[in-house]
Amino acid sequence: MATIAEELARKQREISVSEFFERNRQILGFDSTVKALIVAIKEAVDNSLDACEEASVLPEISVTISKVDQNEYRVSVRDNGPGVVRAQMPNVFGRLLYGSRFHAIRQSRGQQGIGISAVVMYSQITTGKATRIRSKIAESDVSNDIELTIDTKKNRPSVVKDDHFIWEEGGKRVDHGTLIEFSLAARYVTGRQSVMEYLRSTAVVNPHATISYTDPEGRTYTFQRATETLPPKAVEVKPHPYGLEIGTLINMLAYTQEKKLSLFLRNEFSRISDRVAKEICEKAMVSADRRPKDVSLQQAKAILDAIGGTKIMAPQTDCLSPIGESLIKRGLKNVLGSLRPEFYAQPVTRPPSVYSGNPYQVEAGVVYGGELASDQPVAIMRYANRVPLLYQQGACAITQAISSIDWRRYGLEQRGGTGIPYGPAVILVHVLSTKLPFTSESKEAIAPIPQIMEEIDLALRACARNLKSHLNKKETKSKAAVKFDIVTEILPKIAEKSSKILQRPVPDISRTITKIMNVVFIEDGVDYDAKKKVAKASVRVRNYTSRKQELKVHALVPPAELDRGSIYPEPEEVSEDGKIMWNLKKLQPLEVVECTFSLKSMERDDYSENEVYISDINPATVIGADPLPGDWGIKTFELEEAEVEEADYDEEESELSEE
Amino acid sequence: MATIAEELARKQREISVSEFFERNRQILGFDSTVKALIVAIKEAVDNSLDACEEASVLPEISVTISKVDQNEYRVSVRDNGPGVVRAQMPNVFGRLLYGSRFHAIRQSRGQQGIGISAVVMYSQITTGKATRIRSKIAESDVSNDIELTIDTKKNRPSVVKDDHFIWEEGGKRVDHGTLIEFSLAARYVTGRQSVMEYLRSTAVVNPHATISYTDPEGRTYTFQRATETLPPKAVEVKPHPYGLEIGTLINMLAYTQEKKLSLFLRNEFSRISDRVAKEICEKAMVSADRRPKDVSLQQAKAILDAIGGTKIMAPQTDCLSPIGESLIKRGLKNVLGSLRPEFYAQPVTRPPSVYSGNPYQVEAGVVYGGELASDQPVAIMRYANRVPLLYQQGACAITQAISSIDWRRYGLEQRGGTGIPYGPAVILVHVLSTKLPFTSESKEAIAPIPQIMEEIDLALRACARNLKSHLNKKETKSKAAVKFDIVTEILPKIAEKSSKILQRPVPDISRTITKIMNVVFIEDGVDYDAKKKVAKASVRVRNYTSRKQELKVHALVPPAELDRGSIYPEPEEVSEDGKIMWNLKKLQPLEVVECTFSLKSMERDDYSENEVYISDINPATVIGADPLPGDWGIKTFELEEAEVEEADYDEEESELSEE
């Protein structure tokens, strides 16, 4: 026995983080040669996009892959970002867990200081070659060119070549930018999980970037930027006190420069004013003047409790930069290309929320029908801080949130009401945060944090309800259309035929028709004028009852694009946020009124389905539009949700009792 | 522009590994308070089991959970392992990426030097409290008691209390062992993913350990060890040259103490003899006497190619310690408890194999039918180096291998022939290796390395074929039984009735029966004698043909438990590895021979289904047993596999053509 504990002790030693990842490269995403190529390019492009955004530069990125031999490729990624100063080049590219974004609370693609150094390491492990980096900052005349490897036993860069050049391209001096070039063991494939698809998906959620790609065959593809506007710059914020943990608080108290507890609270956290800081100190019964270093464990706990019991403003959200509902729709249309789906559900950008003190936000979109495959599981498009997630779908909070919704109630097929639904649909979810909780350093899946799952759930249900309402509308309309056809086409023919036989004049059967129909029938449609880029919407209201009718018709439209002069007939009200209301008075039996309006600067399919509601009439009398919800806001949807759920439970029960 | 690159540079700095994991604790598995409790206990128990095995001690581990308040629990885990020397206690428990197992190539639960320190860190972050560790090594009179925290900014332990005691328990001195005690933010739950289930699953694959568990209500449960035999000790080996990569080779060449290339090859790798080392040097055209440090990149590549082109013995496999087929079956029976499944497929322990130079091995078992839920996805039990995997099922190679098999051909339901199948089945897979490629530091899922996926696939298909053959046998027997019932029960009655009516003697219709049946009918069964712990097996062979028959009957039985004296009638052959062969000569029409044998020291259900084959007779004549395969070994199965696949493809084609 004597020897064992000591024998073990002799073997115990430190493991460097690069040594650890050298042996566990699958954690970084390098678990196959196919994936290695995509992951390496993704890390370089993430870095380029982040750098450009930090410098407020419209990104221009070119990616080139060339074949070295059967198992080896050479990759170069070049950007027009601000560049890296010479002194930091070795550390930024040649040392794991080194970077500028880890300690900042801000939405960025890279956060860990691992990605690009991991690429350098993978390159060297699999090819034995050094990585070349060229970088030029604006204030320097020359670019620095270095070649480096990583000493994995020490996790330190080792520069094997150091030079500088005048960087010219196409005879023009390059002002600033970075180029990284490396060789790696890789396998090049095309298809669903390929470099091309990764870049395409990246372009979709980064419409301000121009990305060009030259494949190993030398063909160049360019995804041109769709907008010249940079996304609002994600600003850096201080941590929000909600979600703070005792250990973190104790650490912060020990390391702060502040001399008084109240100042510490005000200056090291966001959303804590003097007043709130005082309130916290009072509730915790700790002096506001106490030195942070002298705060005891008990007092720290009391402060934490006091924070929990104090009303503090929600975190600022200008640190988050969502894609936005209209760009999501446009993105989806881009990707689905020629498949011509039947319906794009209105995308949803949820309001920002907080988990463990970190602001986060969820966006979602659903596309349905048309030529989408109907006998397959739905396609899931996952994004995290504008980066497409291509692997580990099963481990991701997004997939798990999708799987836990009963999609049968929203018109998709799903065994037992859980799991990935089947049907002709694409589901897109984008999660953005100042700190995304990935399940591993490869950042391929978001950990199923309950709060995040909940927001994804809410976003998806909102899209799903929109889908369901579309499907309901379609069904109601198709039923009504059948009735309408019979009544309005066949009845007159019968009348005509009968009259002929009886040799009597054709009677006016319109009153009979209205009696049989006894509805106000609403049809709506959108025409697109490609030349003028105008979408013309119309809502036709026909009184098929035998009495005069009065009702209000409401349309919800994108306010920025609405051409106010185009609205016909004169609306009773047009609100700032895009609600048009017509008050149709004394609609005679069989009378038709057509309400129209136009939307300017629209791309085809930007606006393809109207949102029309009615009010001030018994909704049972109307076919083709739902009654106006009590409010246009979120509350209404929640109300609706409750109704939908009740209705669905009833359905399920009756199904059961039938069996 | 001037400021941006420099502004960024000012922010660039090192991130300590503990700081990284403090912010990304979900990577270590601490992503919910429910999970945190299980993960923390798992890390401590893994450590205890590893330590005991290293010291060849039969593990006795006790786990106690007590409630501190609504959100906080205190956990203690105590073992009888070799203990940790005082000097190493702070580093082992208070520093991430520090340990004894990372640099060793050996199968162990812990490999990373992260787990237990992560527990200490999580405890301190969520409660602000220090972790207490008591450890005693055999050669010391006293135990050392320390309390420590981690300085996460530096990743260094900070000992806040240091003491020593005489460690007594129940009035007896403790000889050696370790106790760790910590508080943590946690939520205690029962059910499928709970501490109890984790410990139960752990006990299943560690039958040499006694694990006792006291829950927060103070109830103590003990999983007694099922065997006094330690699993064969997993020895440490050198890396195998296959799968070596250029970067790793260059590193090894730079750091080796050897002065000559041939010695370097012989001494730093396993399975390279002097002869093989010379052969490699010759093929690479590099002098065997070259100093390793002087080997160039080109030469290193040539050496790597030469290794690939040289026949080198497969890695030694005594570094792997599989559970074994009979213990897997017993384990499954333990877990499934009272559910009484219909069938336990013969578990499979595949021969060891190699990926990237790392030996690994796969074991699998399948249980089917009985009271297992039939309208649910099959239950999947995943194990890695004898540790149950409870989370991230979707991301795991095991799940992906299961999902990519078309289980419909083996009798389970599965939409489209991919995905997790539905049906009354449990699938167990155990992957063991000197280096398991986990998808993250939380070690919850195995990365889908193609070679590992392939071995899992082979193991599963072998089990699945066994299941299918059982289902076929069941179906054939049930069909035969119907015929048998009609012929043997109704015909005599008709004869009797007819005779009565005609008032004539009942004729002997046995010849008629044999004519109609025209088969040799084999039935087998097992009776269990609980008192004597003996399983009595019988194989009844009945000649239902009108001619004499001759055939050989073969039974495959566990050789160790076979009571050779119990075999009746006298067998023609009993082989060492448990094959009994009876030669039944001149079986008269309607004659019945019952072959029996007994197995000793059996638990109930250890042996519940016979493996019976026939030979030296036209198999078409026999119902109830399959013809003897050409060989008992693996080759046969591969042959079978090919046949199965062909047959299935035909089926699929015909299905398609029907549509």
Describe the SSE topology.
The structure is a homodimer of 659-residue chains.
Chain A: H1 2-11, E1 13-14, H2 17-23, H3 33-54, E2 60-69, E3 72-79, H4 89-94, E4 98-99, H5 115-127, E5 131-136, E6 143-151, E7 156-165, E8 168-169, E9 172-173, E10 177-185, H6 195-205, E11 210-214, E12 220-223, H7 246-255, H8 261-268, H9 274-284, H10 297-308, H11 325-336, E13 343-344, E14 348-349, E15 353-355, E16 358-368, E17 379-384, E18 387-389, H12 397-403, E19 425-433, H13 450-502, H14 510-517, E20 519-529, E21 534-544, E22 549-556, E23 562-568, E24 573-574, E25 579-587, E26 592-599, E27 611-615, E28 622-623, E29 626-627, H15 634-658
Parallel strand pairs in A: 2-11, 17-19, 20-28, 27-29
Antiparallel strand pairs in A: 2-3, 3-10, 5-6, 5-10, 6-7, 8-9, 11-12, 13-16, 14-16, 15-16, 16-19, 17-18, 20-21, 21-26, 22-25, 22-27, 23-26, 24-25
Summarize the structure.
With 659 residues, chain A is of the alpha+beta class.
